[in-house]
Amino acid sequence: GLRGRFGMYVPPLMEELGLPYEMQGYKREATGAAPASMRELHPLGRAPVIRDGDTFTLGWDDAVQARLLK
After folding, report:
1. Rounded distance, CA 52 to CA 62, Å?
2. Could you give the CA distance from residue 12 to residue 6 in angstroms, rounded to a whole number?
């Protein structure tokens, strides 16, 4: 996700659940916006993003956590 505090709860949750994950960092633009490469993953540039193949993408800390705990 974007560097900073976003997504800091998701990796420990993934580890606790024994789920594999890959982290990718993205540097914010000077305006504070997500870079284009991040918006390719999620149209709003939300972080963190969880992807399940090419068909499912979910972005936003609380939504990702809810999905993982389901």
Report:
1. 17
2. 13
Q: How far apart are CA 6 and CA 28, in angstroms?
A: 12
Per-residue pLDDT, averaged over 51-58, amounts to 72
In tens, the pLDDT along 1-52 reads 544 554 677 788 888 889 888 888 888 899 988 899 888 888 888 777 777 7
Tokens 């800091």 sit on residue = 8
Distance CA(13)–CA(23), nearest Å, equals: 13
Measured CA to CA in angstroms, residue 2 lies from 5, 30, 52, 69 at distances of 8, 13, 19, 22
| Contact between residue 11 and residue 50 where contact means Cβ atoms under 8 Å apart | no
